[in-house]
Amino acid sequence: MKRKEWLDRLLSILYPPRCVCCGEVLPAGETLCEACEKRIVRIEAPVCLLCGYSLQDCGRKHPKTAYQEITAPFYYEEAIREGIHRFKFRDRPQSAIFFAREMAKSVRENMPGISFDLIVCVPMLPAKEKERGYNQSALLARELSALLGVPADCHALCKSIDTPAQHELKGAERKGNVFGVFEVPCPEAVEGKTVLLCDDVKTTGATLDECAKMLKFAGAKDVYCACIAVTRKQDKAKQEPPSL
Ligand SMILES: [Zn+2]
Ligand SMILES: [Zn+2]
Predict the structure, then answer these.
(1) Does the predicted model carry a pTM greater than 0.85?
(2) Ligand 2: distance of its center to the CA of 113 in Å?
């Protein structure tokens, strides 16, 4: 056996692949266990790009947003909800690979013909990022960058003020909570560009809207959004995201 094969085998024993959603150990090369695969709620085409829902779930009344369109592969429910929680709070940065692959697929399918110049992410306060060890949205941006062949700039937006986590607040409070907390430190980095803004979960969309507003204010031409999952309205009470 070659040295490389040995090393791969050793690594797979020490760090076996685990289900992205429930954490169960899996055979090599797999990312989801059978049970979780069945509990994933995908957003089926055709989709409404104003809210990200399947057209059949869309309420058709959308507040005006600073971003043009939003797409996501999943609803924030069942196995995906657990997977995102694991990704954010259980030190599973490698989950970004699976989630970004699904996000890239939904961007390609739902936003064909849009030529993105830049991928940016929803920022975290530096102290919070240090505590967690990574910003999950930045990991998604980097993976998306490789998959879509578009450069990523994870410092295009920054967060300068600490705020309570969005899930601790009610809908109307969420907008106020993020108002003015994001900045574009270097406007020339986004000026005239078509930007793909990514984050893990869209609940009310207040965070994405505020980030898009700042990007547009700094001179970005258009802003589109991609998330892992969106929260369906009827489930909001029990489907709050665990953090901003
Ligand atoms: Zn599983
Ligand atoms: Zn809609």
Answers:
(1) yes
(2) 21
